[in-house]
Amino acid sequence: MSTDARRGRPLGREEIGGWFDGEKGLIDKTIYVDPDIYELELERVFARGWNFMCHESHIPEVGDYFTNYIGEDQVIVVRDENRAIQVLLNTCSHRGNALCRAEMGNTKSFQCTYHGWTFGLDGKLQAVPGGANFYRDKLDTAQWALRKAAKVEQYKGFYFATLDPDAPSLHDYLGEVGRIGIDQMAVHGELVAIDGVQKNVIDCNWKIAVDNLYDWYHVNFSHRSAMRVGFVSASVMQPMQQMVMLGEYGHAIGGPGVSPAQQEVLDGLSDEERTRLDSLSFEERAKLAPRISERRPIRPTHMKEVMGPVGMRAMGHPNIFPNLWISTRALQLSLRLPRGPLKTEVWWFTFMPKSYSLDQRRAMMRFMTHSFGPAGLLEQDDGENWTYSTRAALGRVARRRPQNLQMGLGQDEVREDPSGQRSIETRVNEHAQRWHYRCWTDWLQAESWDELKRTRTPSPTGRI
Amino acid sequence: MSVAAPPEAPIGSVDLPLADRMALHFRVEQFLFHEAHLLDQRRFRDWLELVAEDIHYWMPIRRTVTAKDIDREFTRIGDMAYFDDDHKDLSMRVEKLYTGSSWSEDPPSRTRHFVGNVQITAVDGDLISVRSSLHLYRSRLEGVTDNFCARREDGLRRAGEGFRIARRHIYLDHTVIHATNLSSLF
User: Fold this and answer.
1) How close does chain B come to A215, measured CA to CA in Å?
2) What residues does each domain of chain A span?
3) Which end of chain B is more exposed for a tag (fewer CB within 10 A), N or C?
4) Confidence check: pLDDT of B9 > 80
5) Number of C-alpha atoms within 13 angstroms, CB side, residue A185?
6) Quick check: A62 pLDDT over 80?
7) Is the dihedral of CA B36, B40, B42, B43 positive or negative?
């Protein structure tokens, strides 16, 4: 039993285990609206996991900061005097006030607007007004530094933090599948963050927003109008060739894949030929190389070593558990931040490869500004689906019937490549969504990292 | 320390006799009201007729920053934005509304564009720079209401008796958008 003072009822292992039925592909709708379950998620998923903070290029200079969230804990991500990235809880050690009320900027220190306690970029308490006169030199400032994240680590310039000292290293947490997810961005070479994070709040549970990123079933219907007006083509939005990679702790990649036969053709191309093909329109490309996938980019030759022979072919959407989506074209990241069981704040970070020409930059910016974010031709049609999928669970009778996540259940095979990499090669399916909820159950049931490391569901093999 | 909300468009000269200036102001204002009416009546194709071929329709991202960092309050042209549209993009947005599958606007939103504080800030040949305040009220479905407030910096080009919108830069008074989407036109 977990004991959190804010929670109304204790939630035991058995009750938690009953919400997602992986054998039947059914989900209890309660998990989207129950405040007790939400509190447990904050404690056992967000306060425990590794959460994305920022890219190194977001805060290049000493004193540059950016505020982010770990669950509902707001943190300041700042580059300190030694150029190291610090993640500090944004709450004064005196009375708890927020130290930083801007979302970004540059500063020499963080000064509380309540009583003026002042903290260094490393979180140390530097100055207390009235230290001699009012505290009579009895305040031990060494004890009142800001609370820091337990660990801050990066993979290829992407910084993550965890509040739990028992968490494994970021490398081990990501595992092969999580790392391949981030490698999808690293494919582009050195990246620079484009200024501006899009932020909007949708009335839905965060898990619905997350599992939607694996959902290649909805695209042809939810986003039909964007296809009708020619913004995207149906063959790109919902190709038949799909593959899924499932990683421990809940990471996954789901969506289009390059078939082994297509990869063979690609393997025969030099990097120059790959770049040239990538710059062509779909029509031109289809004429020149009819057998290769329409997915872009065609990854450079050296990435096969980095991503492995199977990972190299995975072109779908990765999610780094719990809530970081590496989006289409792998130049945008989206966080789905929990704001209570019925609200999610969606953030979009955008990057550009340093190597891109002005024309490439323009084309990519146009695609990115018009796809996602609240005004995106694709994303504007998602929100209400998520809202009402969440809200249905408030109905006492509607709640009794579980949601259906049965597509492809028991009909596919996890295959292991000679390299040891595993994938499911199939058509549109719901394997990654089921994996998300399977692992989410592990996270909620485990009372500690030690337990989670022991009890987590191993990466599946065989029939799935 | 300046806390001016940037970028403040320079007020160019409006070097006209008062009577001409008043007449122009009247025509500009009537144009903006008419345009708002078309949007609120969901006559989106008619509205698009008022848009110049070389339109730049742009809504930067606004950030909560301290007074010291106020010059970074808005993203700049070329950075990330909510809207960064040319005529082709706007046509796509408008045509999307007529596809029968534009779910964010079906059932359609009920909008009211309140346009006020209209100022002509410059007259440069055929191009008239116009600043206005916009309050876009949106009501959706049973109980959703959204309120968006913004400063608009428009460029209106004279076309016969009327105008065409050649520039619309929308500076929102919000940082985090507390709405499901931005499926309306500003």
Assistant:
1) 18
2) 51-155, 168-463
3) N
4) no
5) 27
6) yes
7) negative
Are A324 and A333 within 8 A, CB to CB?
yes
Query: Where is average pLDDT lowest: A435-439, A454-458, B10-14?
Result: B10-14
Chains A–B, number of C-beta pairs less than 8 Å apart: 128
Q: Greater confidence, A245 or A8? A: A245
pTM of the model: 0.96
ipTM higher than the 0.90 cut: yes
CA distances from A378 to A108, A218, A220, A250, A368 (A): 41, 11, 11, 26, 10
Provide the CATH number for the domain formed by A51-155 in this structure: 2.102.10.10
Write out chain A residues lying below 8 Å of B82, CB-based: 198, 369, 373-375
User: How close A372 comes to chain B (CA, Å)?
Assistant: 9
Cβ separation of A197 and B61 shorter than 8 Å? yes
What is the Cβ-side half-sphere exposure of residue A255, based on CA atoms within 13 angstroms? 30
pLDDT mean over A314-318 = 96
- CATH C-level class of A168-463: alpha beta
Among chain B residues, the shortest Cα distance to A380 is held by: B181
Q: Which residue has the tokens 């320390």?
A: B1
